[in-house]
Write a structure and sequence with these properties.
Structural class: mainly alpha
Number of strands: 0
CATH architecture of the largest domain: Up-down Bundle
Number of domains: 2
Distance between the termini: 108 Å
Strand content: under 5%
Order of helices and strands: HHHHHHHHHHHHHHH
Shape: rod-shaped
Number of helices: 15
Radius of gyration: 35 Å
CATH class of the largest domain: Mainly Alpha
CATH topology of the largest domain: Rhopdopsin 7-helix transmembrane proteins
Length: about 350
């Protein structure tokens, strides 16, 4: 018995180390899950070999933390499906279980034996079994919901479903552990109490499933996960305003060949991001934003009383045609460029005598 479980454990540990060494949240979480499965197997691997009889002080050694199985599986699947970690409170029960075992392991051996007979077996073991079952089933249900959401997201975008199949394979393997564990708990409660050796079948299943997950995890270590990409809510106004400041400062609006792709490259972003930022931040399209800067420049020159030809000013500002310039200018100021110049000239002439009298 010990040899069989020990061989399974050794292979899992080697693959876990190799998977963790590849880096990344999903790989590290899978490696940690495999190590926890090995820890759950360890008390039985060394127990069947007689370690506890020969070295009684090993009792309560915190090898097994089964309450960590569900959270680590959920961390792994959450990384594959959403590419993000889970809240830290999921670690509360596993940490509490490990801490409890560590404290009990530090107790004197005689006290440990009395505590095991009077408290651990009659009271704490049933509570732990119920918590473990609830944890495993709860995380299985949560993972199943996430898998369905992932599949629907991939189907809606006509994406390859290989990523969803990898997630499903992990979930099926986990479901096998939950199902067999539930069967043993029912048999223990309703048929007859199970002994230490009666549980060997469950731990063989655990070892086989763990090795399957390890081998598949190693094989798929470099596969593209294709997680769900959620839309990010942003305040586009300051982002768009900063873009406009850069465009104006560099004079990029003067370039008659400027288009959305070229401006995106100069700003260090992409066309979709730039277009959305201008629309949601300023309520403007690309052409409206750039032509707005151009007509403001021409209008400022006209207000300054320049004698230059209006069409030349428009071309210098980046407009490609007179018709486009006249249309944009009239939409912006409500009058034609020539009328705007005439009104500005009259206004400047009216203000000039006042300035001379003041001087």
């Amino acid at each position: 018995m010990s040899l069989i479980l020990g061989l399974f454990e050794a292979q899992m540990l080697v693959l876990a180390a190799a998977i963790i060494g590849r880096g990344g949240m999903t790989r590290r979480s899978l490696g940690a899950l495999l190590i926890v499965l090995c820890g759950v197997l360890t008390p039985f691997t060394i127990g069947y070999a007689g370690f506890y009889d020969r070295w009684p002080w090993l009792s309560f050694a915190p090898f097994a933390v089964p309450l960590a199985i569900g959270p680590l599986l959920y961390v792994h699947l959450n990384g594959l499906i959403f590419d993000r970690p889970i809240p830290r409170w999921h670690a509360a029960l596993p940490v509490a279980q490990f801490a409890y075992q560590a404290v009990a392991f530090c107790m004197p051996l005689d006290l440990r034996g009395a505590f095991d007979r009077q408290v651990q077996r009659p009271w704490l073991d049933p509570i732990l079994a119920a918590l473990l079952l609830a944890s495993m089933v709860g995380y299985a249900v949560a993972a199943l919901r996430a898998l369905r959401r992932h599949r629907c997201w991939l189907v809606a975008r006509r994406s390859n479903l290989a990523a969803a199949r990898r997630v499903r394979a992990v979930l099926i393997a986990y479901a096998a552990i939950v199902t067999v564990r539930t069967g043993y708990l029912i048999a223990d409660a309703l048929i007859a109490p199970l002994s230490y050796f009666d549980m060997f079948g469950f731990y063989v299943v655990l070892a086989v499933v763990g090795n399957y997950m390890a081998i598949e995890g190693w094989r798929q270590a470099d596969a593209r996960p294709h997680p769900i990409v959620e839309p990010i809510e942003r305040d586009w106004r300051p982002i768009a305003a900063a873009w406009m400041d850069r465009i104006e400062a560099h004079g990029w609006w003067r370039d008659p060949d400027l288009d959305l792709a070229e401006l995106s490259r100069r700003l260090g972003t992409n066309t979709a991001y730039l277009s959305r930022g201008l629309n949601e931040g300023l309520g403007l399209g690309f052409a409206e934003a750039i032509n707005g800067l151009r007509v403001e420049h021409v209008a400022a020159r006209l207000r300054d009383g320049t004698d230059g030809d209006i069409l030349t000013l428009a071309i210098d500002a980046g407009f490609g045609s007179k018709a486009t310039f006249n249309r944009v200018f009239k939409e912006r100021f409500g009058v034609t460029p020539s009328t705007y110049r005439r009104v500005s000239t009259v206004k400047n002439d009216a203000e000039r005598p006042d300035l001379q009298r003041n001087t």
